[in-house]
Amino acid sequence: MNNKKFKYIDQEVIHGRKKIKIGYRRNIAREFEKLRKSTYDTVIFEDIPVLRNINTCLIDGVKTLVLKDIGILDNGIFAMNDLETLIICGTVGRMCPWVASYCDNLRTIIIDANVFSCDSYLIFDHCPNLAHVIVRGAFPDNLIHVTDNTRTYFDDETRHVSKFPFVNYRNSFDSLSYKQKERVREQLQLSSKWVTRHYGRNHELDDAIGAGASDMWNFIADAFGSWSRAYKMRKIGWEYNDERDRPSVKSLKRSGEYTPGENPLEFSFGYAPEWNGVFQRNRRIFHLRKIAGKGPDFVRMMRLCRWIHEIIRHDGKSVPHVYYNLRCLLNATALSGNPGNCFVMAMCLSEALLSVGIKAKYIKGYSLRDDLTKYHVYVAAWSRNLKKWVFLDPTYGAWVKDINGMILSPAEIRYNLIHDIPMHLNPEADYNGNRDSIKTYLTHYLAPYMYYMVANTYSQDETEGDTHHPQGLWVTLVPAGEKSGHFITNPTSDDEYFWQPPQ
Questions:
Q1: Residue 450 gets which letter from DSSP?
Q2: Which residue among 50, 61, 211, 251 is least packed, with the fewest CB closer than 10 Å?
Q3: Complete DSSP assignment for 273-326
Q4: Average of per-residue pLDDT values in the chain
C-alpha cells in the first residue's frame, strides 16, 4: 500500500500486544480503516492539526487510545466499548466539550496536555466504570463534568472533588516541587516549539492558538520568571486580541475558499419588476428617473448612490420605527432632518434602483466574530452594460475601481483584498462630509464585513420587517467549512450561486 500521504507509520509488538502509531496531516479518519488490517491494542494519533470524526475509524478492540499533539480535537470519543484508557498529552490547540461518552469499559482518562482553548467545561458522559480522571499541565480554567445515569459530579472552586481531581498548574505552580516545576517548564517549551511549527498553516487552528496564546504566555513568563520568553506566542496573543476587537483584512485573509458548483441551494433569486405600483409611486414622488439621469446603467446607479448618501446623514444607531420602504424611510430621515444607519441607507438605495429598473439587493456583511450587532450593509446592483454586479456603499457614497478604472463587484473586491491587489475609491467618497476616513476604508472598515455576506432571495420594497406581502428567504455566503453562527441561515459556499445574474 502506498503510504506517502502519512507523515509516519510505526507498527510494533510490545509484550505480546500490538501497537500502532500514526501521524497524518489530512483526513486520518477516512484512511485509518484502509491502513488497519487487524485489531491493535494501543493506537496513537500524533501531530495531527485537525482530528475529526474519530469514531468513524471503526477501532473496536482498542484498549488504549493516545492522542498526542493534536491541533483541533473535535467530536470526542463515543461508544468505544473496548476502550479502557484514554490519554491526551502533548499540546492541544482546542478540545471539544464532549471528551468521552458511552464507553462502557473506560476506567482511566489522563489529560496531560497544555491546552490553549476549549469551548466549555469538559464532559465525560455515561462511562459507568470510570474510576480515574487525571488532569495535568496548563489547562484553561474550566469545570470538569462527569455524569452517568445516577450520579453527577462537578468540580468546585478548590478543583478537588471526589475521585475526579482537577489540577491546574497555572494556579498552583508555586506549590509544586522543584522536580515538578522543571517538568512543567519542559512541557511549556515543547508547546512553544509546537506553536512555531503549526501557526499560520490552518486558520481554524490559528484561532484556537490565538484564543489561548496570551494566557499561555503569561504562564510561561511566570514559570520561567522572564517576560522575554516565548516572544512569538506573546505576539500571537496580542495580534489575536487586537484583531478580535478591531477586525481588519487579516481576518478576511484567513477565510477558506469558496466551492463553486458544490451543493447549491434550491432557492432562486428574484427581483420585483419596475412596473410594481410602489415603484411607480417612488418614481413620481422622488423624481428618480431625473436623479438617475441618462447614460450607461452603472453611471445611473452611481448617481442614485450619491443622492442617498447626500440626503441621509449616517448614524450607526439610528433605525426609525417605520415600514422598511423608500417612502417611509426617507420621510423619517432625510425629510425630517434625522439620520439613519447603513441598513436604512442601503435599503433606500436598493429600492430606488429597483424603481428605475436596475436589479439590486442589499447585502448584510458580517465579520468573523459571531456578533449580531457588528455588521455593515451595502448594495449590489446588476449592470447589464458591464454584465456583472456592481458594489455600492451609500454610507460613504462610494464604489470601488481597479488600477485600470474598472468598477468592481463585491466578489472582485473581496478577492483583491485577500490577494493585496490595488484598488481605489471614487474621489467623491466621504463619511458625513469627512474624507479622512476613506484612507483605511477598504482594509479596516469594509474588509471585515465581507467575511460572511447575507442576501434575500427576493428583493422588493419592504424586503424585511412588517409588511403585507410574502417575503423571501435569507441566504448566507460563507467560506468553506464555516456554516455555524447566530446570523447564518441557509449557508452556501457556492459563490457562483450567490452571485448568479438576474433572470
A1: G
A2: 61
A3: -TTSHHHHHHHHHHTHHHHH-SS-HHHHHHHHHHHHHHHS-B-TT---SS-SSH
A4: 82
Rounded mean pLDDT of 70-82? 83
Output the CA–CA distances (angstroms, integers) from residue 236 to 64, 201, 240, 241, in the order listed: 35, 14, 6, 9
Q: How many Å apart are CA 297 and CA 428, to the nearest integer?
A: 19
For the beta sheet containing 388-392, the strands, ordered from the edge strand earlier in sequence to the opposite edge, are: 388-392, 375-383, 360-366, 452-456, 474-477, 491-492
User: How many CB atoms lie under 10 A from the CB of residue 268?
Assistant: 11
Contact 358, 301 (CB under 8 A): yes
Q: What is the pLDDT of residue 165?
A: 35
Query: How far, in Å, CA of 69 to CA of 76, rounded?
Result: 15
The Cα–Cα gap between 438 and 440 comes to 5
**What is the rounded distance in angstroms from the CA atom of residue 170 to the CA atom of residue 474?**
46
By the 8 A CB rule, do 100 and 106 touch?
Answer: yes
Cα(447)–Cα(138) distance, rounded to whole angstroms?
36
Q: What tens digit of pLDDT does each residue of 324-382 get?
A: 999 999 999 999 999 999 999 999 999 999 999 999 999 999 987 666 667 999 999 99
- Asked whether 237 and 214 are in contact (CB, 8 A), the reply is yes
How far apart CA 293 and CA 35 sit, in angstroms, is 69
* Residues 6 or more apart in contact with residue 238 via CB below 8 angstroms: 214
CB count, 10 Å around CB of 111? 23
393 with 379: CB under 8 angstroms? yes
Residue with cell 491546552: 115
Helices (H), 356-449: 410-418
Q: Is the dihedral of CA 435, 439, 440, 441 positive or negative?
A: positive
Three-class DSSP labels, 240-260: HHHHHHCCCHHHHHCCCCCCC
Please report the DSSP string for 323-352 in residue order. -SSHHHHHHHTGGGT--B-HHHHHHHHHHH
Angle at CA of residue 500, ends 357 and 278, nearest 5°: 25
Cα–Cα distance measured from residue 139 to residue 171, given in angstroms and rounded to the nearest whole number: 10
Query: Which has the closest alpha carbon to 479: 453, 446, 447, 443?
Result: 453
Note every long-range contact of 217-223, with CB atoms under 8 Å and residues 24 or more positions apart, other chains counting: 219/138, 219/169, 219/170, 219/173, 219/188, 220/188, 220/192, 222/170, 222/173, 223/173, 223/181, 223/184, 223/185, 223/188
pLDDT at 174: 77
